[in-house]
Write a structure and sequence with these properties.
Aconitase, domain 3, 407 residues, alpha/beta
Length: 407
């Protein structure tokens, strides 16, 4: 591949991966047959579009190549993650006709090259479920930690360039979480209180991430067994407050048959305890940006909602209407929205005045059940943000006021 016998695009991709691997001191490359990345749509790079359309966009932004090369089909299973715009909901979210047209053209271009347009930060909810031990090349922090910890597949947090190159070569540098020894727990969190609701799991994850940062924690002492939704929120919160890409729960996650096996015979480098005081601190940190209790936007689905979560919101909104000054949006994968439509959940939610679908213009005070969003929204968009349970958020949507709290 590197000497160009498989074409200029593959040569550029392999050159990028070799430089990347050398910078990481990787010993070798490893085969991957599962790539989740971001194919840039070029809407903000008119200069590249004029030079060579999406071939130029991919060459520059995915292959780090100023030379425009013709992009061939993907060599391995490749999925597109988030989209910046929703073609189906442009009348709600905004977006110029030109931007919408550019995105549609990009979807056609990359779809013709074997890129599956999942358009979600939760590819594992839309059919991409790698096997235990499978080497992957995934982007997006909450997807990466779920892939590693919950599924037991192996990936580092890759970028636009490395996933683009992996899609054309089926290779990725063998380093970090591809190596078994790097996947062992290094730190221990001992849980001393009940952790039951999705909100509780988000708070635990937020505390764990703040404590361990980029290390690999083992979490012990849990009295209830989590479901995939709770693990999704645990990992997303830990990846937001820290840089957690892998965690273990003995007896729950696939690479943790016991605490001793998870630690690989080593002693933890540090031990933290998570009790009522720590839970309270995590909750107050997540709500530190909010002052006004007049809520004008409620956001659910970061990471994207499961079908069960959409169903739960539909139940909470049955025969109710949103407050006149609030909006409620649910974010779901395209594939799951179709199921929600057929199941009648979308109809119930929309009858209440909500939308199953980015943040509306003019929103100032936001409520969310996502610790990840409560962490990022104040810094990225300057919004006052309340964090609480799904029930707290639905109550805010129907009353226009935040009344959530911590028991």
């Amino acid at each position: 591949m590197l000497d160009g016998r498989e074409g200029p695009a593959v040569q550029k991709a392999m050159d990028l991966l070799v430089r990347y691997g050398e910078a990481l001191d990787a010993e070798r490359l490893v085969d991957t047959h599962n790539v989740c990345g971001a194919m840039t749509f070029g809407g903000t790079r008119a200069d590249l579009m004029q030079r060579g359309g999406f071939h130029a966009v991919f060459s520059e932004l995915n292959l780090d190549s100023p030379e425009v090369v013709e992009i061939p089909p993907a060599r391995v299973y490749t999925c597109q993650l988030e989209h910046g715009l929703s073609l189906e909901t442009a009348h709600i979210t905004g977006g110029s006709p030109e931007a919408m047209q550019a995105q549609r053209q990009a979807e056609i271009f990359f779809g013709a090259r074997g890129v599956h347009m999942l358009a979600t930060c939760t590819p594992y909810l839309a059919g991409n479920v790698p096997l235990l031990g499978e080497h992957c090349a995934w982007m997006e922090s909450s997807a990466v930690v779920y892939c590693n910890a919950v599924l037991g597949a192996r990936t580092n947090t890759e970028g636009t360039e490395s996933t683009g190159a992996a899609s054309l070569t089926g290779k990725i540098p063998y380093w970090g979480y591809h190596i078994p020894a790097c996947r062992r727990a290094t730190h221990l969190v001992e849980v001393e209180i009940e952790v039951d609701s999705v909100m509780d799991w988000g708070l635990l994850g937020y505390y764990v991430g703040e404590m361990v940062q980029e290390a690999v924690p083992a979490i012990k002492g849990l009295k209830s067994r989590p479901d995939p939704i709770k693990l999704k929120h645990l990992g997303a919160a830990a990846a937001s407050s820290g840089g957690v890409e892998m965690y273990h729960i003995p007896g729950v996650t696939p690479e943790a048959p016991s605490l001793e096996a998870t630690l690989g015979g080593n002693q933890p480098l540090a031990i933290w305890r998570y009790g009522r005081a720590e839970r309270r601190i995590a909750y107050e940190n997540l709500n530190s940006s909010a002052v006004s209790r007049e809520v004008d936007f409620i956001m659910l689905g970061c990471p994207h909602c499961t079908l069960e979560q959409v169903w739960r919101v539909a139940q909470l909104l049955e025969r109710k209407r949103l407050h006149g000054n609030t909006q409620l949006w649910l974010f779901v994968a395209r594939a799951l929205k179709e199921v929600a439509d057929r199941s009648g959940y979308t109809r119930t939610i929309e009858a209440a005045g909500a939308h199953v679908l980015t943040v509306p213009q003019g929103a100032k005070v936001v409520a969310t059940d996502s610790a990840k969003q409560a962490h990022y929204l104040p810094a990225m968009l300057g919004m006052q943000t309340w964090f609480g349970s799904t029930e707290d958020c639905i109550a805010a949507a129907t009353t226009g006021r935040w009344s959530g709290g911590l028991e």
